[in-house]
Amino acid sequence: MEAANSKSDNHHEYDMIVFCHLRWDFVYQRPQHLISRLAKDYKILVVEEPQPTRLNGHSPLEVREITANIHVFRPPVQNIESIGSFLKKHLKNRVFPVGWFYSPAFISVLDTLEFDSVVYDCMDELSLFKGASAHLIEQERQLLAAADVVYTGGKSLYESKQQKHHNVFCFPSSVDVDHFSNKNTDTVEMPADLKDIPHPIVGYYGVIDERIDLDLLRKTAEKSPETSFVMIGPLCKIEDKDLPRAQNIHYLGMKSYEELPQYLHFFDVAMMPFALNDATKFISPTKTLEYMSARKPIISTRIRDVERDYSNCILLIDNEDDFCKALKETPNKDLGEYKNILEKTSWDHTANSMKSIIQKVTA
After folding, report:
1. Is 5 strand, coil or helix?
2. Which end of the chain has less neighbouring CB within 10 Å, N or C?
3. What's the pLDDT tens digit per position in 271-285?
4. CATH code of 194's domain
5. Whether the Cβ atoms of residue 176 and residue 193 lie closer than 8 Å to each other
């Protein structure tokens, strides 16, 4: 990612405004992948959730310039409902070509800003997440009514939204194979914080939140004392005290998108120990394809989209006994199917397909 700097300027003209519940500098995932590619054709303002300051909206529009065509803005206002009027006051345009929403929580901006086309890229069922606002379901109903096109991040989400909108397209999360494949494997240096961790290493990276089955991790680590379990990523909506502790469980904190392939290279097995709960009902984890790009055997709980798309090449488990059994099977796992799966997907292709749908809608 290119270096960012701050700019204060009220004359920016944007082709697309993206409203996103995830901070740009948080885990690098679907929004960053797509926006970075769409920025070849659009000048984009990414609007994050607000961060109130003592100025409370009485300040200039200060954006961080990620690239010439991607500006990120954290509104200095008290609440999400104040974002629309703040932007209207500071932006030169009166009508914008595309309004792109990642969260229905931003719906009130449609009261003050006008868009030629409204896109809802639904990557998660946010209303089912821990701590979600009770208003999200009604806000999503309004967003679906306003949206010209809806994209979903997986098949389960597609089936859910298809019943609520006339123009829904399924775009499961994709992968940058070259980034994760570590083609020059001889030159990959082991990260310092992995050096003292004994192999075999079973690793996970991503957000560590209510979607992770911490009990499964604890019980499996207990039954496989000779295996090291490595968890990489930030804690979100859970606390340090909630994490299972054992000599063979290691928490390495958050790593950048650039660093992840280096860590993944030294995993013997990649895991997706997701809990089966409301928050995971519709997920389609991006990391599945990233793990495949590095040619790692994968052990996962039975997430619906994972099971139906990849059951022929991923070891699926229900409990800690299955997990321990799967660990013994991984050395003999045939990973040949990965190649066929990866050939059918790329973020470039996804972004181009989304763009052409928007152009048809606008036309």
Report:
1. strand
2. C
3. 999 999 999 999 999
4. 3.40.50.2000
5. no
Of 45-59, 222-236, 249-263, 286-300, the poorest mean pLDDT is in: 45-59
- DSSP label at 357? H
Please state the φ and ψ torsions of residue 88, each to the nearest 5 degrees: -60, -35
**207: containing domain:** 177-343
Token pair, residue 336, equals 């040949």
Query: Could you give the CA distance from residue 274 to residue 282 in angstroms, rounded to a whole number?
Result: 12
Tokens of 101: 């929403």
pLDDT value for 128: 80
Note whether 274 and 285 are within 8 A (CB).
yes
Where residue 193 falls (left for φ over 0; alpha for ψ -120 to 50; beta otherwise) is: alpha
pLDDT of 97-131, one tens digit each? 999 999 999 999 999 999 999 999 999 888 888 78
Indicate the pTM of the whole model. Answer: 0.91
Question: Average pLDDT for residues 210-222, to the nearest whole number?
Answer: 98
Q: Three-class SS of residue 38?
A: helix
Stretch (H or E) spanning 119: strand 114-122
Other C-beta atoms within 10 Å of 128: how many? 16
Name residue 77's amino acid. Answer: V
Q: How many domains does the chain have?
A: 2
CA 99 to chain centre: 19
Distance of CA 289 to the CA centre of its chain: 13
pLDDT at residue 8 greater than cutoff 60: no
How is the beta sheet containing 62-67 ordered, strand by strand?
5-8, 62-67, 70-73, 44-47, 16-19, 95-101, 114-122, 149-152, 168-170
Percentage of the chain beyond pLDDT 70 is: 96
Q: How far apart are CA 34 and CA 44, in angstroms?
A: 11
Average the pLDDT over 5-26 and give the result: 82
> Which residue type does 245 have?
R
If asked whether residues 355 and 331 sit together in one domain, one would say: no
| Closest to 311 measured CA to CA, from 346, 291, 337, 282 | 337
The answer for residues whose C-beta is within 8 angstroms of residue 239's C-beta and 6 or more apart is none
User: Do residues 330 and 190 share a domain?
Assistant: yes
Same domain, 134 and 260: no
